[in-house]
Amino acid sequence: MNAKPLQPSADFDVQRIRRDFPLLARTVHGKPLVYFDNANTSQKPLQVIEAVDNHYREHNANVARAVHQLGEEATAAYENARDKLATFINAGSREDVVLTSGTTQSMNLVAYSYALPRLKPGDAILTTVMEHHANIVPWQLVAARSGATVKAAPIDQRGELIVEKFFDMLTPEVKLACVTHVSNVLGTVNPVRDIARECRRRGIPLLVDGSQALPHRPVDVQALGCDFYALTGHKMLAPTGTGVLWAKREHLQAMPPFFGGGEMIREVRFDGTTFAEPPHKFEAGTPNIAGFAGVGAAIDYYQSLGFSAIRAWEHELLIYATERLREIPGLRIFGEAAEKEPVISFLIEGAQATDMATLLDLEGVAVRSGHHCAHPLMQFYGVPATLRASLAFYNTREEVDAFVAALLKVRKLLM
Ligand code: PMP
Q1: What is the structure's pLDDT at 64?
Q2: Which of 303, 326, 356 is the last residue of a domain?
Q3: How far is the CA of 267 from the centre of ligand 1 (A)?
Q4: pTM (2 decimals)?
Q5: Measured between alpha carbons, how far is 168 from 225 in angstroms, rounded to an integer?
Q6: Domain containing residue 294
């Protein structure tokens, strides 16, 4: 990990920012909440909460169906979120932004609509050992149906992808490569631009799982040079049930619809139904309209703070938290990549992760324990579970201190 702060963050007023997040002011078991489970889901600022509330109070109607005023307003909020998302990730065109319920749906859309029709026995999908199950299981399901296999590129003990091995494994039978931008367990940032370049040289499409990247860093999907980019709204200040699949136009044009129903058709006839153009071809049924109103507000919120300030503060917190954790005897950190986001997985010798998390909760500290939907990564490290503290820009050094104090107390109880 780069041990130097990115830039001074003196003008980052974290206390002012925290006032935007009402939930951060609550107590848990009589203790001030320390919310360090941001990689699981982020808290929501008032601006997002109010956008959702306002949608239901003032604009609620279905999208793209009604000609009445409310229908137009609801459609405008939903399509406005698409525009904002397109700008946020530099999509090139709003038509290349498919609105989904989250990364999991985005991945499954690629699995069933892009991969399955192309895969044949002997083909392979290449992923990595550090992936979330959402970037493994959909590929296994379509591999099982088509006679293809799923291969996983290795990582090293520091939790970095062994990039040369990944490139070696990009053999001709690989029909799709899938890699996470940022690991949800280790915080590792993968060199996706280099990976995309090597995939392009070999004519292999690349999907990037951006779930854990967008909350922390600006993303330019065109500059990355990937084919597909998936993201989930609820980890980036927005409501649950919102997400995106961005894909290159040629893929979206070629992919058949996955879900059929209303909204995704041009004309339905029993002698042959025709479909809408992308992205609507992939958006059957009534979407999470209020949720996407919240997505628009979440993007505005990120942009009002600016990623350079967010990154500097989060990096400072990561360095501080890592240093403080290293003071604790018997504590082992999993994931020490040169470039990482503020996610720290760890174990304390002699203590079970779940026992620790349960006792930490009694101290008001919310961290996640378990396999983090990354069984193969746990198998790689030979542990059933870890504790994970995942930070956000609204966290503070004082919360890190409270967390470390709670850890020391809990450690004593369990030893
Ligand atoms: N990929 C990664 C790296 C994740 O962290 C998560 C969420 N934990 C997902 C995919 C799945 O996201 P969702 O549950 O929002 O679909």
Answers
A1: 78
A2: 303
A3: 35
A4: 0.97
A5: 20
A6: 49-303
